[in-house]
Prior knowledge:
Elements: H1 5-22, H2 30-37, H3 41-53, E1 57-60, E2 66-69, H4 78-86, H5 112-128, H6 133-146, H7 176-188
Helix pairs in contact: 1-2, 1-3, 1-4, 1-6, 6-7
Amino acid sequence: MHLSKKAEYALRATIHLGIATEMGRVTISGAELAESNRLPLKFIERIFQELREAGLVETHRGKFGGYSLAKPTSEIGIGQLVRLMDGRLAPICCASENAYQPCTCPDEDHCGLRMIMIDVRNAIAAILDRYTVAQVVEVTLRKMRRDGIVPPFANTDSITISGASANRKADPADGFLAGFSQLATLYASPDEHDPL
Length: 196
């Protein structure tokens, strides 16, 4: 699977809309979303047009207009967004469940490449379909707060940051699944209460 720029930008912008909602900002302008993600405004506007047509985003006109989520973040799946933007999750068309197309293989039913690519598709779908934007937002905000980073769209007058953020490399322990596992462990322990 190759995640297109369109899907990447749609995911980043939708996650940022979810963060904005958590920060009490229901509507965010396209310019703010583009700037906070370092993305081209015209591309964001085209992507949000598609998200609006799919019923995931609402647009608001006027001086304080912009974009807001049309559904709760808990109802927006990561796999749903990727499929909306990119179509299939499978690396090759003949391994796709939702966008199947025959390939040039003379015996598709006994093709070793197709079999392994079906397993790849299943593994990708299992991860992407397991999580929602709400879960990604929750883990993202927890990690930002842990590292002393002010979340985007936060009212900085009411936030105090303790500690400085270290310049981190892409450590597997800092991935979403590790953060989600830590969050699940925290909620499983009734003695510890650490609000986001």
